[in-house]
């Protein structure tokens, strides 16, 4: 015999097999609504980086430069921040083999990208990532691709510091050959893996308050100077106290009374 409870779905209803137990008819719709709300807020959180106007404008500027052929690379944005990847082309090498100094071609690329990054560095952290291919290296200067990629990222950071970037918001990190974007099975793919990535974190700092004295304090009239403490007090007549002569009667004697003036006859 099916259990019937007021406001509940009967046990023999087909929906019971779907939800596992009798429930009010409105509960299924309510559960669907809550699930949709959770998905909605997850999507908003994932798109929070795109809602940042500064990063959104920077992304559009970089995409425009890539489209016009001024630089080769990619730009992507997610909830963590924005990644700008510079890729080597056939005629453009960022670094010489086994070295960390920026080539002339790389400095040209950096000169185009620096204005976009400088604006973001005022309120965002920028992490420069260095990546290499899987060709091993063992020199007196660089024992492995770890050291080489770190040195290359540091060279890029030094270039940014020379372009008036805020040093508090810059960092360099090297990943060696451990994060390839394509297999290192050809010279073309190894060239793609030798790249520099600028990771702009989606953590805008609050704008610094304007410092300086208030307008009222700046225009205030200074108080008159305090009187010199070494000056001696003056008597009511304007004569210093120490210059006034006082005659006192000896102890035990009464001061003599002044003789009355004689009246004229």
Describe this structure as you would to a colleague:
- This protein has 265 residues and is α+β, with helices and mostly antiparallel strands.
- Among the domains are: 14-46, no CATH class; 53-201, 60s Ribosomal Protein L30, Chain: A (2-Layer Sandwich).
- It is 34% helix and 12% strand.
- It is built from seven helices and five strands; from the N terminus they run αααββαβαβαβα.
- It has helices at 14-19, 25-46, 53-67, 104-121, 145-161, 187-193, 215-218, and strands spanning 73-77, 81-87, 126-131, 170-176, 195-201.
- The protein has a five-stranded mixed sheet.
- Strand 3 (126-131), helix 5 and strand 4 (170-176) form a beta-alpha-beta unit.
Q: What is the β-strand count?
A: 5
Per CATH, the superfamily of the domain at 53-201 is: OmpA-like domain
Strand order in space, largest sheet: 1-2-5-3-4
Instruction: Please describe the biggest sheet, giving its number of strands, its sense, and whether it closes into a barrel.
Output: 5 strands, mixed
The SS-based structural class is alpha+beta
Secondary-structure element order, N to C: HHHEEHEHEHEH
| CATH uppermost class of the domain at 53-201 | Alpha Beta
Principal-axis shape: extended
Distance between the termini: 154 Å
Which architecture name of the domain at 53-201 does CATH use?
2-Layer Sandwich
Number of helices: 7
- CATH topology tier name of the domain at 53-201: 60s Ribosomal Protein L30, Chain: A
Beta-strand content estimate: 5-15%
- Taking all Cα atoms into account, the compactness measure Rg is 42 Å
Query: What is the mean predicted local confidence, pLDDT?
Result: 77
């Amino acid at each position: 015999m099916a259990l019937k409870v007021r406001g509940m779905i009967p046990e023999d209803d087909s929906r019971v097999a779907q939800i596992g137990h009798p429930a009010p008819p409105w509960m299924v719709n309510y559960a669907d609504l809550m699930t949709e709300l959770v998905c909605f807020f997850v999507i908003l959180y994932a798109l929070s980086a795109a809602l940042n106007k500064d990063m959104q404008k920077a992304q559009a500027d970089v995409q425009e430069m890539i489209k016009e052929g001024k630089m080769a690379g990619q730009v992507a944005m997610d909830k963590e921040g924005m990644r700008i990847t510079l890729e080597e082309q056939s005629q453009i090498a960022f670094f010489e083999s086994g070295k960390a100094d920026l080539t002339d071609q790389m400095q040209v690329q950096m000169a185009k990208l620096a204005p976009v990054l400088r604006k973001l560095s005022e309120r965002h952290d920028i992490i420069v990532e260095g990546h290499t291919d899987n060709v091993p290296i063992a020199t007196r200067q660089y024992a492995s691709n770890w050291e080489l990629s770190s040195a290359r990222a540091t060279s890029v950071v030094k270039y940014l510091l020379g372009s008036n970037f805020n040093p508090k918001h810059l960092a360099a990190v090297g990943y060696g050959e451990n994060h390839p974007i394509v297999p290192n099975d050809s010279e073309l793919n190894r060239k793609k893996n030798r790249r520099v990535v600028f990771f702009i974190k989606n953590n805008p700092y609050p704008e610094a308050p304007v410092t300086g004295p208030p307008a009222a304090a700046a225009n205030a009239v200074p108080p008159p100077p305090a009187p010199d403490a070494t000056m001696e007090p003056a008597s009511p007549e304007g004569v210093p106290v120490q210059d006034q002569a006082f005659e006192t009667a000896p102890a035990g004697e009464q001061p003599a009374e002044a003789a009355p003036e004689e009246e004229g006859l």
